[in-house]
C-alpha cells in the first residue's frame, strides 16, 4: 500500500468517527423542530453513510465495475463534503448552541461542533491528497471540479441545499402561490446545475446536439432568469405587509419563542433572501465564465473557405 492510499484510508476511517459522534450525540438529545439542527444532523449522517460506502467499494475492489468514473465521483463527493462540513461548522454553533442554557445539551452540542470541525479538516486534507494523486490519473471530471466552472457549480448546488434546509419549514411559503413558485425555482435550478456536473461525470457531452459549453450557457442563462424572479418575489411576499408578509421581526410570534424556534420563521425568510442574492451572483459569474469559453472556442474554430 503506497503512502497516498494509506492516507486516504486513514482519513476515511477518521471521517467515519468524526461524523458518527455528532450525529449520535444530537440524535440522543433531539433537535426538536429546529431547521439548522435537523439540517446539520442530515449532513453528518449523509457524510457518514457515503464515506462508509466508499470504504466498502474500495476494500471490495468493485470500483472498476461501476458505470461511471470512480475518481470523478470521489472528487465531487469530497468537494461537497468539505463545503457542507464548513457550512455546518459555521451555522450550527452560531444559530443553535448560543441559545442553549448551560447543561448536558449544550455540552453535547459543543462536542458535536468540535467533531464537525475535525471532519471539515479531514475532508479538506483528503481533497488535497486526491488532487495530488489524481493529476494525470483521475481523468477529466477530477480536473473539472478544480476549474472555475466546476467550483462555481459546486457552490451553486451547495447553497441550494442550504436553501432547501430553510424552506423545509413549509410555513414559509405554502400560504402564497408566488412563494411556492420560488420554492420550485430553487429546485429547478438545483437540477439544472446537477445536470451540468453529471454531463461531465457521465461523459455524455458528445451525445448533445449542441457543444457542451453552449448547452451549459443556455442552462445557466435560464437559471439566472429563474433566480431573478425568485429574488423579486421572495422578499416581496415575505416582508411587504400589503402582500401578506411581515415587515418587522417583532411581528413574528415565533421569534419570541426561543425554546422551540431557535431560528424563527422571519429569520429563515431573511436567510433565504440573502442566500438567493449570493447564489444569483454566483450564477452570473458562471455565465461570464461560460460566455468567455464559448467566445474563445468560436474564435479558435477553423473557418471553412
UniProtKB/TrEMBL annotation:
Segments crossing the lipid bilayer: 16-36, 42-61, 68-91, 111-134, 154-172, 178-202, 214-237, 270-294
Sorted alphabetically, which keywords does the UniProt record give?
A: Membrane, Repeat, Transmembrane, Transmembrane helix
Q: Name one Pfam family in it.
A: MARVEL
User: Where is it mostly found?
Assistant: membrane
Residue limits of the MARVEL domain?
A: 3-135, 144-295
Domain of life of the native organism:
Eukaryota
Topology in the lipid bilayer: Multi-pass membrane protein
- Which family does this protein fall into? Belongs to the MAL family.
Name recorded for this polypeptide? Myeloid-associated differentiation marker-like
Amino acid at each position: 500500500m503506497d503512502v497516498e492510499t494509506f492516507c486516504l484510508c486513514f482519513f476515511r476511517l477518521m471521517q467515519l468517527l468524526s461524523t458518527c459522534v455528532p450525529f449520535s450525540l444530537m440524535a440522543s438529545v433531539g433537535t426538536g423542530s429546529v431547521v439548522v439542527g435537523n439540517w446539520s444532523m442530515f449532513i453528518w449522517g449523509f457524510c457518514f453513510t457515503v464515506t462508509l460506502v466508499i470504504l466498502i467499494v474500495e476494500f471490495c475492489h468493485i470500483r472498476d465495475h461501476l458505470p461511471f468514473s470512480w475518481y470523478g465521483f470521489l472528487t465531487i463527493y469530497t468537494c461537497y463534503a468539505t463545503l457542507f462540513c464548513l457550512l455546518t461548522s459555521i451555522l450550527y454553533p452560531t444559530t443553535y448552541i448560543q441559545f442553549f442554557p448551560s447543561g448536558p445539551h449544550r455540552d453535547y452540542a459543543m462536542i458535536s461542533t468540535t467533531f464537525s470541525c475535525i471532519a471539515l479538516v479531514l475532508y479538506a486534507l483528503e481533497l488535497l491528497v486526491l488532487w495530488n494523486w489524481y493529476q494525470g490519473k483521475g481523468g477529466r471530471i477530477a480536473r473539472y471540479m478544480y476549474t472555475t466552472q466546476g467550483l462555481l457549480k459546486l457552490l451553486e448546488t451547495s447553497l441550494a441545499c442550504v436553501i432547501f434546509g430553510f424552506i423545509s419549514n413549509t410555513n414559509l411559503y405554502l400560504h402564497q402561490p408566488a412563494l411556492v413558485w420560488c420554492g420550485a425555482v430553487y429546485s429547478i435550478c438545483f437540477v439544472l446545475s446537477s445536470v451540468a456536473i453529471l454531463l461531465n461525470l457521465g461523459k455524455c457531452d458528445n451525445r448533445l446536439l449542441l457543444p457542451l459549453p453552449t448547452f451549459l450557457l443556455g442552462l445557466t442563462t435560464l437559471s439566472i432568469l429563474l433566480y431573478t424572479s425568485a429574488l423579486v418575489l421572495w422578499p416581496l411576499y415575505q416582508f411587504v405587509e400589503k402582500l401578506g408578509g411581515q415587515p418587522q421581526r417583532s411581528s413574528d410570534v415565533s421569534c419570541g419563542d426561543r425554546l422551540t424556534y431557535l431560528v424563527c420563521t422571519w429569520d429563515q425568510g431573511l436567510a433565504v433572501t440573502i442566500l438567493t442574492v449570493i447564489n444569483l451572483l454566483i450564477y452570473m459569474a458562471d455565465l461570464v465564465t461560460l460566455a468567455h469559453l464559448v467566445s474563445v472556442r468560436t474564435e479558435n474554430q477553423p473557418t471553412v473557405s
